[in-house]
Design a protein that fits this description.
Elements (H helix, E strand, L loop, with lengths): L1 H13 L3 H8 L4 H7 L4 H10 L7 E4 L6 E6 L4 E6 L7 E6 L2 E6 L4 E5 L6 E4 L8 E4 L10 E8 L2 E7 L7 E6 L11 E5 L2 E5 L5 E5 L4 E5 L19 E6 L2 E6 L7 E6 L4 E4 L7 E4 L5 E3 L9 E8 L4 E6 L4 E3 L15 E4 L9 E3 L1
Parallel strand pairs: 20-22
Antiparallel strand pairs: 1-2, 1-25, 2-3, 3-26, 4-5, 5-6, 6-7, 8-9, 9-10, 10-11, 12-13, 13-14, 14-15, 16-17, 17-18, 18-19, 20-21, 22-23, 23-24
Helix pairs in contact: 2-4
């Protein structure tokens, strides 16, 4: 009787309608999808038909002269170029959801620009000197908010906000309960409806755009590598958000990077030995996270630096506990932090020229 029950159970799974199989398998992660495909030929066919593999972001390089920008695809190790005359005279400040946030110092014009659709959204003029700036979501969304914070004194910061369609920026001074020196070297992410700002020394400021409140979280700063503040190593600090989690990455010369995740409950930074399949793409202006990438790209950190004549992007594998390429000088202190940024890849490559 027991054997018959088991046989009926297996037969039930084997004769599931294709539509139902597709519905079930389409909701699996890439890792589980691959495991499912090994069950039988029928499941393999269904798993392949609904398998979703994410594309990694591209690294966009800013030319010192001219209007031709280079884009590096780390998955294919290819470099593309695209002429973008719209960016002439602009400073790129941030990137999210396929949109660049630009600033023209000469005219104090702030605007959104999609480099692949060429769509542009202008914002009210605003003087941005050395403060950092970010936005919450695509400017096409009614929930889009721009946020920037500027140091006034050790106990006072000026926070300015704006949104697409506004006629002016709103600036309010806030007092800090703890010293918080805001500068261009800070890191900024939007997570769970809040803007998180990590200061140069590792203190965490939080701004609520709905309640219009600013506070300093009593979270001890993450431990820095030895000599982190020597020779400008603070240029090698990065911050990213992924599905409600906040990550901070510290790099220092040839030492392995230290990666922390913010534990909101216990109010502490926890050092991560694995990213559990997440891939981080770190650049000075903005960093990003991806899941469901193929091969060795999973559980790694990709940095905004390319070696071997543009053929290899520097990365660190948490599985292998090593950099790729291994024998490289990771001189973050010597790197221009404003020379590149990670951006969403385009769907159409027809407008690009490929550099072999």
């Amino acid at each position: 009787m027991k054997e018959n029950d088991e046989q009926e159970h297996h037969e039930t799974w084997s004769v599931l309608p294709v539509e139902l199989l597709e519905l079930i398998i389409s909701r699996l992660t890439l890792k589980d999808n691959i495991r499912t495909s090994s069950v039988c030929k029928r499941w393999l066919s269904v798993a392949l038909s609904v398998r979703k593999v994410n594309k990694p972001p591209w690294l966009m390089y800013f030319p010192k002269l001219g209007r031709v920008f280079e884009f590096y695809d780390p998955s294919q190790r290819k470099t593309y170029s695209l002429e973008l005359p719209e960016l002439h005279g602009c400073r790129i400040c941030y990137n999210k959801d396929g949109w660049l946030l630009l600033y023209k110092p000469r005219t104090q014009r702030v605007l959104f620009f999609n480099p692949f659709t060429r769509e542009m959204i202008k914002l009210p003029r605003f003087e941005m000197t050395y403060q950092i700036v970010a936005f919450s979501t695509s400017p096409k969304s009614p929930d889009c908010i721009l946020f920037t914070v500027k140091h006034v004194s050790p106990t006072v910061v000026a926070i300015s906000t704006c949104h697409p369609g506004a006629t002016e920026w709103t600036t309010v001074n806030y007092h800090n309960r703890l010293p918080f020196v805001s500068s261009i070297w800070n890191k900024l992410v939007f997570c769970n409806g809040l803007f998180y700002c990590l200061s140069l020394t590792g203190w965490l400021g939080v701004y609520d755009p709905v309640e219009h409140t600013w506070s300093i979280r009593i979270v001890p700063p993450p431990r820095c590598p030895d000599n982190f503040f020597v020779k400008n190593w603070w240029k090698g600090k990065f911050m990213a958000e992924h599905k409600g989690d906040i990550f901070v990455i510290y790099t220092c010369y040839s030492e392995n990077p230290i990666i922390y995740k913010l534990d909101q409950v216990n109010k502490e930074w926890v050092e991560m030995k694995t990213l559990e399949g997440v891939t981080l793409f770190a650049s000075f202006l903005s960093s990003h996270a991806r899941t469901d990438l193929l091969g060795m790209m999973r559980n790694s950190v990709y940095f905004s630096k390319v070696r071997f004549y543009g053929k290899r992007c520097i990365s660190y594998s948490l599985d292998q506990k090593r950099y790729y390429p291994r024998k490289q000088c990771h001189d973050w202190g010597e790197q221009d932090p404003f020379e590149s940024i990670w951006v969403e890849p385009p769907d159409d490559l027809s407008t690009f020229s490929w550099e072999g």
